[in-house]
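Exercise 7. Predict the structure of Glycosyltransferase subfamily 4-like N-terminal domain-containing protein from Candidatus Marsarchaeota G1 archaeon OSP_C.
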Amino acid sequence: MNKLSILGVTEDTMFVAGGRLAFFQLMRSLSFVGNFVIVVTNTGASSAQVNITPARMVRLSVPQKRFVAPAFFILKLFTLLPKLIPLTQVVLVNSGYTLPIVVVFAKVFRKKVVVLQHDALSLEYSLRLATSRSRKLTTIIRWISLYPPLKLVDGIISVSNETLKKLKAMGFEKPSFVVGNVVE
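Solution. The predicted structure, encoded as tokens:
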């Protein structure tokens, strides 16, 4: 079996999230089978919950404020990704606000990029859930940052058949695989 050099990228927040836990568990599993795995994330609650050894984790320190943390993390990724992506064969990114920037950098360096997608909500449904104008605006920004970049990825890993069905209904026909619930 060929061993791969994998770069994983995900954001983290002060709240524990199931999608991020699933991403960390997947990275840990990939490293257990002999792949060389580096995970880049920012300081947060989810990364503190999972020991991803034997994978290596790079935690970037950013202030944990609602809009400040994503901005600082993305700025730090601009300097770190050009150094790490050329050293890897595959880039695996968790669905989130880091998805567009990671996909662009991976494509610039002609690397395969795969996304772990843990939910799939249509824009109309997401807007119905939003309760205020500011929530509607952030919903639109989040949707734009999550789903259009999926057209550029080389593959999709999903945590459920339902998510995969919803993505296919939204028009995403990339090679895909369901890993199931990888959270212990």
